[in-house]
Amino acid sequence: MSAWKYKQLMPKVLVSKLRLIQTKDMLDLIGSPLDRVYSELAKTPYQKEISEISPQQLSSISLEEALLKNYVRTVDEIAHCSPRGIRALLTRILMKFEASSVKAILRTKMAGVEADQAMKYVIPAGRLDAAKCIEILNKSRNVRDVVSLLSDMEYGSVLDGAMEEYDKTGILLPLEIAVDKHVCSRIWRAAKKLRGLDGKIARTILGLEIDSMNIRVVLRFQEAGISQDRAKQYLMPISDIFGRKELENALRAKEPDSTLKHLLNAARVNLARDYQRLLMELMREYETHKSLSQVETILDRELLRTSLKMLKRYTPFFNIGFVLAFLNLRWYELRNLRTIIEGAEDKMPSSRTRELFIFPS
To answer: Please, which contacts does 309-316 make with residues 24 or more away whose CB atoms are closer than 8 Å?
Structure first.
């Protein structure tokens, strides 16, 4: 990719990267009431969206919605001044937020939350704007109704294909994973169209994200007692390290620690040192806490750590590595801020809020 094509994009991303909130400033907000969080965020790049919240509207939901609106606007602005192939990839990445809206609607229906209360847990995004979300919530009585009401979007057919598994298990996991797989597939197809160094870097970063998704799928389906034959359709084996054979072998394991050992062996065979380090860390964490949530936190942390490495490696160059790394860092900043906000709303002990933060190490 010619550096000339990045002449508008890179200065914008560089300036945005410099405006990321410092970790110490976020930690200082832990335990603060919502009004202080609101005041401090008004001094940051989130100022435009935060200023649209009146004191009477201030709540954890309004703050979280403002953060997400800001992130979507940031991606849109970066996409607008990007070369065509990168713009297509960033547009696909925004589908993640529509997927989050779909999953939130499904969860409220599964939990039996009344329509007028459900919007507290749903953050509209993309084509699933507030009006569309409210319409689905008001017109649906159950999960199957939600799937029918999404028939005018691709999520409807994706969910319909997973309804048989939902009917057998009575849990949302197959539906949520089906949506995630669909979105990741769209993102991956866009990444594969990039050529040269851009393509290599994009596939490295996004490949790690998809491999992380596959590890979660294997572990969560094992926990739910779903058979290998039924679970393997939800995998996305795009990696040179975790291909279909390696993932299906991991699915055959009886316990999470055995699963992680299978994957570690695959990483060793492929001489994938970063994956070996990650899997050994996952094994230690699971042996200590026996918690899949803790394992998933480490997977998130690894993606953040990889993004920081990409920033250091590619700052002097004009390519997509810096862009994708910045967007991941901004996403984890948003997640940490949401943790602070939810902690304030629930009056969570500061120590617990800090435990939920995603740090690179």
So the answer is: 310/201, 310/205, 311/17, 314/201
